[in-house]
Amino acid sequence: MAARAQQIGPSGFAGFGVALLLAALSLGTLAVVGLNAEGLFSLGPADWAALRFTVSQAVVSAILSVGLAIPLARALARRRFVGRRLLVLLLGAPFILPVVVAILGLLAVYGRSGILSDVLVGIGYRPLEIYGFDGVVLAHVFFNLPLVTRLLLQGWQAVPAEQFRLAAQLGIDGHNFTRHLEWPILRAVLPGAFVTVFLLCVTSFAVALTLGGGPRATTLELAIYQAFRFDFDLGRAALLAVMQFALCAVAAVLAWKTGRTSEFSPGIERLAERWDGRSWFASIGDGIMIVMVALFLLVPTVMVIVNGLHGLATLPASIIPAAMRSILVALGSALLTLWLAVMLALAIARQEPQNPRVSGLLEGVGYLSIAASPMVIGTGLFLLLFPHIDPARLALPITALVNAAMSLPFALRALLPAVRQARQDYGALADSLGMTGLSGFRLAIWPRIRPAAGFATGLAAALSMGDLGVIALFADADGPTLPLLMYRLMGAYQMQAAAGAGLLLLVLSLGLFWVFDREGRHDAGA
Amino acid sequence: MFRNALLGAALIFFPGGAAGAEDLPVLNVYTYDSFVSEWGPGPRVEQAFEAQCKCDLQFTALGDGAALLARIQLEGERTKADVVLGLDTNLTARAAETGLFASHDRVVAGLDLPIEWTDTRFLPFDWGYFAFVYDRTKLSDVPRSFTELAAMPEDFKIIIEDPRSSTPGLGLLMWVKAAYGDRAPEIWAGLAPHILTVTKGWSEAYGLFLKGEADMVLSYTTSPAYHIIAEQDDSKAAAIFDEGHYLQIEVAGRLVTSKQPKLAAEFLDFMLSDAFQSIIPTGNWMYPVLTPKSGLPEGFENPVPAEKALLMSPKQAVDMRKDALDEWLHALSK
Asked: For residue A381, what is the nearest residue in chain B, using CA coordinates?
């Protein structure tokens, strides 16, 4: 039986191949940078200060993001209202916006001359002053709360509808409901989500710097950037990148140790009607939660839209080819992400019963890229490729590849629970029916993971769309992507047009996400 | 469907061969991002030079000046760059150390620069003064020196760029050092409470300033000219400081490894011609090194007398920057 269970899905080697590729992209490029270093290097007190700030802001940001996401996701999971889908879609906007656009949107509300400050000044108080530790945390919660919420919603949607019905019939409510139905999913999703946010905040740079208010808010990523740009000290850059990896590895191992897979038996698939939380008290609580968080997240997004509308008319003609380039990169990157994530998730789920260590290692490799510095990956790839080929000619494919690697942790996070569940539920059945290889995957696994796959692909497309990433290192003058064009507009004083480009970017990113996510949810039989 | 999409993507990703322009010799010029944007001088420079050189001028755009230098250091002798355009005098000493830049072999005279030009490798193509820009409709009590700035009320805020990641940021570091020398830490300590935030680059800082986040932003004396000429808005002004203003002189150099040394030299000559220089004011929003025949546009009146121009020599700038950065970090980390 155990041997048969290995056979389901496409060849098991693919998963290991994917893991190797990812390891090469993140650790391999780091090694290349390190090997190109000259002389000895060491870390100074400023580097340790950067490490301390990096860890503390990331921990607080992750705790707050996860802490707020639980009630929000629960409220969204058990309430049905007009515009719920649109709300959930728009809530995701901050996460995929280019950093500078999101910062401007955020400050339009929480800045010194933002809406909130205007109100405060109007009633005789001082304007808000968010720059500092608070500002960094605020921004990171703004970016990551929607992500955790989506991951939780994804998890709860995987609970079979029958479970909720059964719980309602048995009169399980309140504390017991939480313990038996919600907790297993939280237990499965939260550690991973926490670490994901933690890692994102660890590798943050421009956000931390701008809202942190100065060099107090130096993260390791900024120190890496400095080592490249200010000192051109590849050795120091590599050493700092190793520190960043080590930090992330510790966090990932902790999460892996605390995480548990959920143990629900399969039900017939349909939208769960939630029977819990029907009391007045719960309804009002959920309503307040949704409105508060929606205001927190949506008002800055609306400001981005409003600012951008003025700029749309001033957009140059070159915006169209730039947008086309970005869409192509996003599509290529998203499909690549999906393929990589499915292969890896299958390999992880397959290894889990017999070789938990191997499976844990594979999963760890899947999250490696989140700890990698884009600067190090880009430079490493550049050093590898430059002697053989003109890097500018490979700008778009490389951007798509690196973006895929960067999106993979999120895709894997979203897919893995579904793949595990599908294998657990249907793997034995498929095996006994002799459904192996691709057909086994298509019939037994794919329909179960399709919603998660749609979500993951959409997320990858949106992330790739908004990412400036390695394109800046490889691009030639004639082929900017949309984010790069937006930065060039800003650099040429064209702030208004840049806001327009930001809006276009937002619409395209959310549009791509919406298309894939919808494709995943609809006609699950196809 | 996926397969077709992949195929389509592959065709656009890997276009069939480089579209060679009828075997014209190619001159590769590495420059910074904003130079090549369609509002920057790049396109007009390309057109004007190609009209005279019978060659194909190709720009490669890389972040800013510091990114340019890092790229040349990464590429070393195998670089395909013939000319690098967009370093400044804070970077030229390190650039010269690479041994990759050839001497320009020219007698440089008659430039409209506040200083004498003596560099034998790099040639200047434009310059400007760093300055704090403010909105005169919102600010009436404008500080006239760093010490006055430090003495402003506590809620008077400025935005600066990080010297570790941006050229203007490094320029400010040098400005304070050039004006105050060993007293720099004291000045920074005085400025620290007024620094609202430090951004990665000029774009973020200027964007925040235009949104009204701070009273002043570190930019250039020529920034208000952009608003006057392009937006018919004369509300922006540069605060002129008694200590003087630090200069940014942007330069270009020819590489020893270039396979087109003649073309590269021709480009450097072109750079100091009226055709190139007349594009600079409203293309790069900096002062040209040779006043165009048509004169300077409105808003380009030089507000800083030449004797108030501050500049460290390239060597001083390199020797100084580590200590200056440490002082800055120390003062602002409290």
From this structure: B74
